[in-house]
Amino acid sequence: MWIEVLIALIKASAIVGMIVGLAGMLGWVERKGSALIQDRIGANRASIFGFAGAGLINTMMADPLKFFTKEDIVPARVDRLLHTLAPCVAMFPVLATFAVIPFGDVLQVGERSINLQVAPLNIGILYVLAMAGLAVYGVVLAGWASNDRLSLLGGIRGSAQMISYEVGMGLSIVAMVMTYGTLDLQAMVRAQGHLIGGWLPAWGVLYQPLAFLIFLCAGIAESKRVPFDLPEGESELVSGYFTEYSGIKYLMFFMTDFIEIAVIAGLITTMFFGGWQVPYLMRDGFHFPGGAAVLLPQVIVAVLQIGSFMVKVFFFCWFQIMIRWTLPRLRYDTLMRLGWKGLLPAALLNILATAVIALAVQG
Predict the structure, then answer these.
(1) What proportions of the chain, in percent to the nearest 5, are helix, strand and coil?
(2) Is 67 a residue whose pLDDT tops 90?
(3) What are the Cα distances from residue 60, in Å, to 53, 63, 67?
(4) How far apart are alpha carbons 130 and 116 in whole angstroms?
(5) 140: pLDDT confidence band, cut at 50, 70 and 90?
(6) What does the alpha-carbon distance between residue 266 and residue 261 come to, in Å, rounded to a whole number?
(7) Local structure of residue 103 (DSSP, 8 states)
(8) Segments making up each domain of the chain, as ranges
């Protein structure tokens, strides 16, 4: 029993460490990526003995040190408990979501089979939706507890925005459940392992392209970034719901945005792009059309699967950052119209089409 607990702790620690490290790296990618898009140099001032590392020292060392040592200012007449609790409430559900995202298949170590997933839930999709619904509480608490009109307006925007896009997000996921007949994310990835026509990977995006587009739009809105950054709206609300935060609390909100990017990238990879699947790679090695095979040790297979998952996640993280610095912010009424009159009807039509095709195939 204690071995199972130890394995679970190792997997959870590895995932948390990887995600927090990835969030920090995404901060560097965003700063240098936006600089390239806008023909700027980007962060490059801080250095160690003259070595700036293309801004890595500035972003990965100097900035965190500044946030950790900066004074934590709490405005007068605020609810101190909720003001302190809000960043934790915002970050925890986002980190917890990664518990059900599989990053590999099964690693056989002796007689023990290790599922490369922190929490192998057979209702993983419902867990993801529950965590997504909880994440907005941090935004609302921050806006309410700050005793500031701009912060409160940002929190209200966040809650209204969440309702509009999460309906479409949920319905796009329903279409995936109908397609694969399971709520288990690991089973959904395994179902994408066969080849269509002997050569084309059976990824979810090929079966549900509209669901992918809906989920991508809703996922970007989930991270509250341009073009859906209305809860922050720095040109209107200073910084929105975290205007009255500084130091480590501000860093927690800042990191939460990047962790949400990673979570959305992980979910897109898992449901629509085969997750850890590598074309032609089975549990014992590569099997190519025509009968050719290259057998590999299970450890190598697991490393290739984890590498495949990480490459796909990195790509969609980069893609979201590029969107952030390419598109303008939507007006608030335009965002509501997109959610209720765009994503929702499209998701309902997609479910109807999926049901008709499923009945036709079964019949």
Answers:
(1) 65, 5, 25
(2) no
(3) 10, 7, 11
(4) 22
(5) confident
(6) 9
(7) S
(8) 2-362
